[in-house]
Amino acid sequence: MRLKSFTARTAAEAMAEVKRVLGDDAVIVATREEGDGVRITAAVDAAPAEPQPYAPVPVFEEQPEDEAVEINDRVIKALQHHAVPPDLIERFRVTLDAFEVEDPVLALAAALDTSFHFQPLPEGKANRPLIFVGPPGAGKTLAVAKIATRMALAGEPVAVISTDTERAGGIDQLAAFTRLLKVDLMEVEDAGALPDAISVRKDAQQVLIDTAGQNPFNPQSVGQLGRMIRATGAEAVLVLPAGLDANESGEIAAIFQAAGATRLLISRLDMARRFGNLLAAAWRGKLRFCESSASASVTVPLSPLNPVELARLILPDGQQMVNAGLQTGTHS
């Protein structure tokens, strides 16, 4: 393991230098304030291997050249591999038949664009606060930290608010991130104080609100969340991990959509190999795809999702795909 220290006026500048010199795989070992600045010590493996997206899953059995599968059938086979619900697969089948595209990725992207909406989160000023909701452990806090880091590194003022004050250690992780970035973290203990907390930071380009994880099958808990969303006028972003059961993800998304969620942010792409639940959640919940997270490192930014990028998640290397040999991967 190789360690290196970086000194700068602010933690944001030091972290930017860490990422530039050591890359996205660097691990923060220690942070100390020194005089008017800060010193960050980071570590990476001494001899990093050539970066590989993620370990592949077994490919489909290759078929002889004289039995090559048609492009649309290849796409359907991939959707089945990703455990997409049958009724949604049938919708894709009808849509694919309407297109005459020779590339599997572009064919699937066209079908995705027909069935789903895509709207990335704003990179600069947001007209409304963004409130991140979802079940416990979905990755809401990390998503907030990634966006706050992006804003801080761009030199744009950002306000971070947490309502996760009851769970033991619920606010500690976010507090550690904001302290490094020298971003003020406001802790709100009751929903009634949330609109006041938002009004305090009118200078911020974005207001990011982290919430406690909610059990989607507890009507009282979800009802309280819905009232909080309406009281703030915030846009609610559902954070949901990849790799869950597709039908259950669809139910969860529909419940959070009824509470006020409008967008879907996908987390843990690096810990999943099947993405059928992403399509089921967006479809059942009538949610717009926005961003994805493929790393637990706060210095690795979120990636906007569009039809082509989503198709590549399901059909990586689609342009070189031969005889239905599919390999599942992702991107960071």
Question: Any overview of this molecule?
Answer:
The protein is of the alpha/beta class and 332 residues long. Among the domains are: 2-44; 130-305, P-loop containing nucleotide triphosphate hydrolases (Rossmann fold, 3-Layer(aba) Sandwich), CATH 3.40.50.300. The chain contains eleven helices and eleven strands. The protein has helices spanning 11-22, 71-81, 86-97, 104-115, 140-153, 172-181, 194-200, 219-232, 246-259, 276-285, 307-314, and strands at residues 2-8, 27-34, 37-44, 130-133, 158-162, 185-187, 206-210, 235-241, 261-267, 288-292, 303-304. Strands 6-5-7-4-8-9-10-11 form an eight-stranded mixed β-sheet, sandwiched between helices. Helix 4 packs across helix 11 (307-314), helix 5 runs parallel beside helix 6 and helix 9 packs parallel to helix 10 (276-285). The longest helix has 14 residues, at 140-153. The two termini are 23 Å apart.
